[in-house]
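To: structure desk
From: M.T.
Subject: fold request, one chain
Message: Could you run this one when you get a chance? Sequence is below, nothing fancy, just the single chain.
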Amino acid sequence: SHLIKKIRQGDEEAFEMIYRKYEGLIYYIALSITKNKEDAEEIVQDTFVNMYKSIDTYEEKSKFKQWLMQIARNLSYNKVTRNKEKNKRKQTWETIISKKYYPRILY
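Reply: Done. Structure tokens follow.
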């Protein structure tokens, strides 16, 4: 595509056009997976940063929209996994602290 070639050449206007065209779709994908507005907004930004960094790996025989959506899905699932792991560690730590320092509380 013409815009992809321009982005590869560092054209900021072409990047802006792609961003405006797909921003809403990427946000919807991220929000539907993460169920969190702040995470979805962060994923939108990260998706376009990743797209820009890896634009040279995009093969034009595949559909750009699908490629971009896959980046967003991958980032979203990674975010959900990291959040689950973080929450698990936090709960474990809170349990350890609670039992050590507040042993009289029944669980």
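Reply (cont.): The helical segments are 2-8, 12-34, 37-53, 64-101. Let me know if you need anything else for the meeting.
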